[in-house]
Amino acid sequence: MNGQFPSTLLEKAVNEFAKLPGVGKKTAMRLVLHLLRQDEETVEAFGNSVIRLKHEVKYCRKCHNISDTEVCHICSNPQRDASVVCVVENIRDVMAVEATQQYRGLYHVLGGVISPMDGIGPGDLQIDSLIKRVQDGGISEVILALSSTMEGDTTNFYIYRKLEHTGVRLSVIARGISVGDELEYADEVTLGRSIMNRTPFSGVMP
Prior knowledge:
The chain has helices at 8-17, 25-37, 40-56, 91-100, 127-135, 150-163, 188-196, and strands at residues 58-59, 66-67, 81-88, 105-109, 141-144, 169-172, 199-200. It is α/β, with parallel strands linked by helices and 206 residues long. It has two domains: 8-56, RecR Domain 1 (Helicase, Ruva Protein, domain 3); 79-200, Dna Topoisomerase Vi A Subunit, Chain: A, domain 2 (3-Layer(aba) Sandwich), CATH 3.40.1360. The strands form two sheets. It has a five-stranded mixed sheet. Helix 1 crosses helix 2 (25-37). The protein is elongated and about 65 Å long. The model is unreliable at 177-181 (pLDDT under 50).
């Protein structure tokens, strides 16, 4: 985006919006100018919601999903099957699986996948807390629902090696999700079928 900004305040706002993923300078300019056209109350509500999100949002102490309380509404729901835990990469994946309305167990959010190229190892993820959940008892099955990428498969294999001697059933979602696909972009029907048609995880790297 060329041209000099007529206001340093405008420039700073555009630069901040442009830091968001998928937002370039032109889109950032459109968003900022849109906010400028709104009344003060609307803009303050927008800004305050972002600030409150950062300051007040919690992470469930059981599954690490985003929550307004110490334990999220899924983990605290007595209607959910607490013996089955679906392991996902991030919060968006929880939302994607929930949208299928096919799964009634609990979740465990890793916060990413093992990726040596990006400097992300097992210690950077919520893998130890998953192992502890299994060791504490009450879990009969762990569903590995990570994206079918090299990093996802590596993480699946690592978790398998950590849990293979615990006696818990380890399964992986069916490959209705194409290799290389991110879970959150799968359509609800395909993802739902992949969860329901899950297969035992053999521990063999693809």
